[in-house]
Every structure is written in C-alpha cells, then in structure tokens.
Specification:
mainly alpha
C-alpha cells in the first residue's frame, strides 16, 4: 500500500511540475501563434494525464489484490473447549457416584457426631479427659459400631450405648438376659433406649444387684408401652 501511494504521488508530482511551464506558455499565447502553443502544451498535458492515470491504475490494482478479511464465525470466535464438552454418565456410573457421595456424606456426619459426643463426654465424665485424644476416638468409633450393630440409629441411642460401655465395660450385656432380650428385640428404638438407661442407672446404684436392674427395666417397658411395639 505504501509503495502504491508513493508511486501515485510520484506521477502526480511529475505532472504538477510541468504546470509552471504550462502557465508560462499560456501567458505567452498573445506573443505566439496557436499552433506554437498547442505544440508546446500538448506533450506536457499528455504527460500530466498519463501520470494521473498510471497512479489511479496502480491504486485500482492494489484494491483488487488486497485480501478480504473474513469475519470469524461463531465457532472460530469462540472455539469449543474440550473441558466444556458435557458427557452424560451411564446409569451404572451415576449409581456409583451417588453411592460415593452418600458414603462421603455419612463419613462427614459421623465425624461431626463423634466430635459432639467427645465434647459432651469431656464435659460430663470425670476421668474422660485424662485419656489421649487418639484413644478416645478409637473407643468412640468402636462403641458407635457396636451400638449400630444393636439397631441403634439415632444419636441419642448411640450415646446411651456408649455410656453403658464406658461405665460397665464391653461385657455388660452378659450380666442380664432381660437386657439381652431388650437389645435384640424389635421394639421401637425410643423404648429400648429408655429401658437401657433405666437398667444402667439401677446397676450403677447397686452394682451387685442385677435383679434390681432387671426390675427397673421391666417397669420402664411397662411405662413406655403406649409408645408402641
């Protein structure tokens, strides 16, 4: 483009340089005949017109040869990214992902519950704080699994079973057939929790009188009979 414009300007300036001669010749017309004037002016006029036409022709040629800049299409302007392509998972993959998510949520919920339970036992039990944290968590994790194996699903039920283990040791169920029957029964969890708590409380008051603890359990079941079977 720069070269073409310079060429055009060169031709135009060349023709323009002849203008003074043309003007002088026009001034001399009264002194010369028309034949002499035409003879002198004609070459200059031809050169001027030739220069202008050559420059114009160069400009037109440059316009035809100039590449047309195409507007980018929507695809070119916004190329598809591989990471934006959505691939729908298969049903089996969806089920697997849901299970993983459920397990993760259960792990988070369990960890939060153990934190709360640990804090409550630290507050309410006299010697609990003397145990190292890792040992406390091992105890809580094992006790929680045992409680769940007995059918306790609520936080209250699990906490009641954990307290029974803490006070009476892991074999406390073996001391009473009444208690074993209660823990393996199909009674509503709320009734089993109440019966367990009454039995543990009675045995802690009279450690050697398991019969009294069994009687406390039976009374608790009678009182909670309206709660359902």
């Amino acid at each position: 483009m720069k070269y073409t414009v310079l060429t055009y300007c060169k031709y135009v300036l060349f023709g323009a340089a002849l203008l003074p001669i043309t003007l002088i010749t026009i001034v001399m017309i009264p002194l010369l005949s028309w034949t002499w004037c035409i003879g002198i002016l004609l070459p200059f006029i031809v050169l001027f017109l030739w220069g202008a036409l050559e420059g114009l022709k160069k400009l037109l040629q440059w316009g035809r040869q100039r590449p047309v800049q195409q507007e980018p299409t929507s695809t070119e302007a916004q190329p598809a990214r591989e990471d934006s392509v959505r691939i729908d998972p298969s049903p089996a993959e969806t089920v697997r992902q849901d299970r993983i998510l459920d397990l993760q949520q259960n792990d988070v919920a369990r960890a939060a519950f153990l934190e709360r339970l640990d804090a409550a036992l630290m507050r309410d039990l006299t010697d609990y704080h003397k145990i190292e944290r890792d040992q406390r968590w091992q105890f809580l994790a094992g006790a929680t699994e045992l409680a769940e194996s007995k059918g306790f699903k609520s936080e209250q039920g699990i906490a009641s079973y954990v307290l029974a283990l803490w006070y009476l040791d892991i074999d406390f169920e073996d001391k009473s057939s009444e208690l074993e029957s209660l823990l393996t029964s199909s009674l509503p969890e709320v009734r089993r929790i109440h019966g367990l708590n009454q039995w543990v409380e009675a045995l802690l008051g009279e450690p050697d009188d398991v019969a009294a603890a069994d009687d406390a359990l039976k009374r608790a079941l009678q009182l909670t009979e309206p709660w359902g079977n």
